[in-house]
């Protein structure tokens, strides 16, 4: 099995090179069907875009595939072996240099995500590196005697335009589909996609197609090529770069087909000039759409970052920096929310207030860093025993509050005892840590949040007066205070005290 895998690892690079060469050859043969100024030169050359995309995605190690494909497509067209080797070398250098420049200065295969990188791709790959292929190719043809010096300018320009437009049309399309190959459209968006494509095809045929495609408005007889732009912008803003580049490529195919049939606004000159015009038009349209798509992506990224930053600021404004529990502001917000919910659904609401016993002595004995660790550990233990609907808050210093929605007085007492036992039984460095708790329950007919806090505070004060490390529940006028003798779950630490003055009053 290991030998088989090793053999496949050796075969896979060769298979990739052959696949690239085959794709380059097939696409190149299609492009050369539109060669007018020379049998080896065309204004439509998609292989440049294919080669750039392949080298950007899988690396320049696949350059032999580009070279082999370029050699085969030219040797089967016209020219000697030496001439074809020169053209293939220029095509390969074009792809390798363009991919290296884009990787070095324009974020590689992610070059379509930012506006500056889009322009970097256009200038470095589509405009600069394509000049290498045009220059080496024309020189090879002239050196081999396959073209005259008088035709050098028109051949070079045709070659360069074909390669440049092939880069801006095909490379972004392949990069977009490689980055996002799966269709995850919701069903409700499919009709819009169909409508978009139908609109693009109908307007494309009407603008660039022969008269047989025109509807009674006959807009094809007017130079209304700009009508295609809003449709492509629709694709950008509604579906993103992948659909936008696909729509641009589809429009380019329709425009080329119509121009070759002597139809559309560009079919008023010689065939090669008409192709140069339509290719230049599609190149400008493609770059515009790429810039708009990149701008939209950047704005979306900024929006997400802003939302994340706002969420962090909001969380920080309601969270205690040391312990991660709610701070006083966050607790007040949750308390108001739970008060409204309790009143709406006629549910009880309980509140626990707790202090860490003799916390100042612990700080004095072990230092404030050790005291901070105690505070954080207490919060972790409390949060480990609360429900998802409960809220733990640090009120300040070593005092904490626990909000218990939909919890009656007995449930609050049981929860408080659970917290007390968890803290007491935990393993602490140095001296042991205990807590004292005061509990209060808001009856369903009451909505007095301040009274709930005051009662819990009274109960906490009473528990501390009774000796600490215990739970005390305050008595409401409409709720019977816990009687420990009747509560099977009560421990010796459970004490019910009525009517103790609050610390704020003492």
Structure description:
This protein starts with a helix and ends in a 10-residue tail after the last strand. With about 500 residues, the protein is α/β, with parallel strands linked by helices. The chain has three domains: about 170 residues, Arp2/3 complex 21 kDa subunit ARPC3 (Orthogonal Bundle); about 140 residues, no CATH class; about 170 residues, Alpha-Beta Plaits, CATH 3.30.70.270. α15 links the parallel β4 and β5. Strands 2-3-1-4-5-6 form a six-stranded mixed sheet, sandwiched between helices.
What is the gist of this entry?
This protein has 506 residues and is of the alpha/beta class. It has 15 helices and six strands. The chain is elongated and about 110 Å long.
Topology:
Layout: H1 2-32, H2 47-58, H3 63-75, H4 81-105, H5 115-143, H6 152-179, H7 190-208, H8 228-239, H9 241-260, H10 271-317, H11 328-345, E1 349-356, H12 359-366, H13 368-385, E2 391-396, E3 399-405, H14 409-425, E4 435-442, H15 449-465, E5 471-473, E6 494-496
Helix pairs in contact: 1-2, 1-3, 2-4, 2-6, 3-4, 4-5, 5-6, 5-10, 6-9, 6-10, 7-8, 7-9, 8-9, 8-10, 9-10, 12-13, 13-14
Assign a percent range to the helix content: 55-70%
What's the CATH first level of the largest domain?
Answer: Mainly Alpha
What is the tally of beta strands? 6
Largest sheet: 6 strands, mixed
DSSP strand content: 5-15%
Tag the structure with descriptive keywords.
506 residues; alpha/beta; Arp2/3 complex 21 kDa subunit ARPC3; Alpha-Beta Plaits; 3 domains; 62% helix; 7% strand; elongated
């Amino acid at each position: 099995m290991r030998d088989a895998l090793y053999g496949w690892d050796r075969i896979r690079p060769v298979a990739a090179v052959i696949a690239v060469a085959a794709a380059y050859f097939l696409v190149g043969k299609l492009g050369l069907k539109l060669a007018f100024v020379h049998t080896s030169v065309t204004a439509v050359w998609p292989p440049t875009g294919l080669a750039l995309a392949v080298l950007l995605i899988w690396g320049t190690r696949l350059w032999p595939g580009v070279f082999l494909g370029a050699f085969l497509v030219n040797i089967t067209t016209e020219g000697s072996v030496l001439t074809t080797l020169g053209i293939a070398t220029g095509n390969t250098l074009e792809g390798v240099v363009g991919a290296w420049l884009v990787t070095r200065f324009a974020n590689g295969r992610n070059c379509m995500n930012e506006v500056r990188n889009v322009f970097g791709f256009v200038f470095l790959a589509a405009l600069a590196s394509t000049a290498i292929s045009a220059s080496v190719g024309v020189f090879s043809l002239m050196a081999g005697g396959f073209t005259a010096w008088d035709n050098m300018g028109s051949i070079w320009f045709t070659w360069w335009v074909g390669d440049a437009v092939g880069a801006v049309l095909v490379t972004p399309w392949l990069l977009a589909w490689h980055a996002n190959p799966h269709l995850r459209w919701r069903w409700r968006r499919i009709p819009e996609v169909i409508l978009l494509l139908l609109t693009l095809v109908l307007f494309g045929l009407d603008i660039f197609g022969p008269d047989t495609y025109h509807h009674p408005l006959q807009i094809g007889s007017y130079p209304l090529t700009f009508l295609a732009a809003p449709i492509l912008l629709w694709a950008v803003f509604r579906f993103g770069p992948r659909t936008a580049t696909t729509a641009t490529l589809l429009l380019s195919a329709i425009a080329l087909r119509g121009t070759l049939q002597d139809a559309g606004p560009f079919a008023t000159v010689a065939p090669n000039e008409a192709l140069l015009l339509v290719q230049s038009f599609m190149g400008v349209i493609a770059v515009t759409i790429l810039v708009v798509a990149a701008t939209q992506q950047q704005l979306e990224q900024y929006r997400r970052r802003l939302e994340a930053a706002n969420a962090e600021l909001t969380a920080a404004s309601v969270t205690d920096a040391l312990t991660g529990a709610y701070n006083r502001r966050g607790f007040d917000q949750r308390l108001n929310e739970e008060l409204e919910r309790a009143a709406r659904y006629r549910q009880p609401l309980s509140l626990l207030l707790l202090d860490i016993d003799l916390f100042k002595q612990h700080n004095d004995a072990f230092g404030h860093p050790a005291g901070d660790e105690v505070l954080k550990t207490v919060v972790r233990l409390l949060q480990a025993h609360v429900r998802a609907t409960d809220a733990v808050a640090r009120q300040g210093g070593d005092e904490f509050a626990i909000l218990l929605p939909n919890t009656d007085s007995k449930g609050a007492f049981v929860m408080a005892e659970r917290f007390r036992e968890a803290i007491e039984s935990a393993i602490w460095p140095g001296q042991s840590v205990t807590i004292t708790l005061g509990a209060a329950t808001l009856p369903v007919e009451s909505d007095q949040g301040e009274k709930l806090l005051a009662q819990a505070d009274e109960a906490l004060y009473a528990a501390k007066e009774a000796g600490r490390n215990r739970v005390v529940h305050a008595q409401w006028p409409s709720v019977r205070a816990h009687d420990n003798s009747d509560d099977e779950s009560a421990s010796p630490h459970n004490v019910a005290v009525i009517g103790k003055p609050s610390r704020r009053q003492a």
